[in-house]
UniProtKB/TrEMBL annotation:
This is Adenine deaminase. Keywords: Hydrolase, Metal-binding, Nucleotide metabolism, Zinc. It comes from Hyella patelloides LEGE 07179. It catalyses: adenine + H2O + H(+) = hypoxanthine + NH4(+). Transmembrane segments: none annotated. The gene is add. One of its GO terms (cellular component) is cytosol. HAMAP family: Adenine_deaminase. The record marks 218 as: Important for catalytic activity.
Length: 339
């Protein structure tokens, strides 16, 4: 099963590039940029990854990001992720970046963007991974600050197909960003939003009705609202679920209690993603694997999750068709029928 999962052609649709910063690279960049870290060793860093909720993670995630200073740092970070993704047969990836996490420290938007974007272009030519960038606003900051960030992104809008919303969810409902998202859509951006990770189902409704999202990031608390579940199935609004993240941040007590399988079998377009793999103990294949073993997912269900990942992506219909055909071929050869 491990090999079947690793080699399964798949797309990753919920990945924060800052969340791919491995402790080894954190030390390397700290040294390169003359930054003092509050940790003495890689194992001390890993020991600090003991989260009680979303905020306890965010504190460490923002602190870690401070080693990212130069364009080359953003390039190296992104390239390391792409190599890892390629080794797990990720064929397409849509990655979040948090410009405000860096501009608030005096790093230029261009520095962040250029480093990431150059690596993504090399990912296409050297690794055969296609990609899309999603600019994510920090919802614990103001709508005005989000507007200013959107302005900075406008010169690059042809290479950033979507905007999103992340960071501390509770008390920062999607409605706070309605005007920013209206403006982003008028400029041609698609929209997504984290909702229903820690926040209530009402935040998912707001993301759909006010922010007009194409997908919901996380969305696992939709299970509390039958009407919402029906709506998600009916409209096939995808959920980008992140199993290891949910367990690490105590959204579920254990993987066995995760509702991924239930969501999938209700007919929701659920996908599996890694969120912040360096912090949550695994990349996309480890997320599929952990969910598979705890929930006893069949090969047919794994196939459906991978198919959903292509369907839910921002790829063109032709590219989706091509990748799904590749997935179908893979599963035929892997003899899905005997699974
Ligand atoms: O899972 C997440 N939720 C909210 N904000 C985030 N920023 C990085 N990862 C996350
Ligand atoms: Zn996330």
């Amino acid at each position: 099963m491990e090999k079947f999962i690793r080699d399964l052609p798949k797309a990753e649709l919920h990945l924060h590039i800052e969340g791919t910063l491995e402790p080894e690279m954190m030390f390397e960049l700290a040294q390169r940029n003359n930054i003092d870290l509050p940790y003495k060793s890689v194992s001390e860093v890993r020991d600090a990854y003991n989260f009680t909720d979303l905020q306890s993670f965010l504190d460490i995630y923002y602190q870690g990001s401070e080693v990212l200073q130069k364009e080359q740092d953003f390039y190296d970070l992104t390239w390391a992720y792409l190599e890892k993704a390629a080794s797990q047969n990720v064929r397409h990836t849509e990655i979040f970046f948090d410009p405000q996490c860096h501009t608030s420290r005096g790093i230029a938007f261009e520095t962040v963007y250029q480093g990431i974007y150059q690596a993504l272009q090399d990912g296409q030519t050297k690794l055969g991974i296609s990609s899309n960038l999603i600019l994510s606003f920090l919802r614990d900051l103001s709508a005005e600050e989000a507007f200013a960030t959107l302005e900075q992104a406008l010169p690059y809008k042809d290479t950033i197909p979507a905007v999103g919303l992340d960071s501390a969810e509770q008390g920062n409902p999607p409605s706070k960003f309605k005007e920013v998202f209206d403006r982003a859509q008028a400029e041609g951006f698609l929209t997504v939003a984290h909702a229903g990770e820690e926040g209530p189902p009402e935040y998912i409704w707001e993301a759909i009705n006010l922010l007009k999202v194409s997908r919901i990031d996380h969305g696992v608390r939709s299970m509390e609202d039958p009407e919402l579940l029906d709506y998600l199935v009916d409209k096939q609004i995808p959920l980008t679920v992140c199993p290891l993240s949910n367990v690490e941040l105590k959204v579920f007590d254990s993987m066995a209690k995760h509702n991924l399988k239930k969501l999938l079998n209700l007919g929701i377009c659920a996908t599996v993603n890694s969120d912040d793999p360096s912090y949550f103990g695994g990349y996309i294949a480890e997320n599929y694997q952990a969910a598979q073993s705890a929930l006893d997912l069949t090969k047919q269900e794994l196939y459906q999750l991978a198919k959903n990942s292509f369907q839910a992506s921002f790829l063109s219909p032709e590219s989706k068709h091509k990748l799904i055909a590749e997935l179908d071929d893979y599963c035929r050869i892997a003899d899905l029928a005997k699974a």
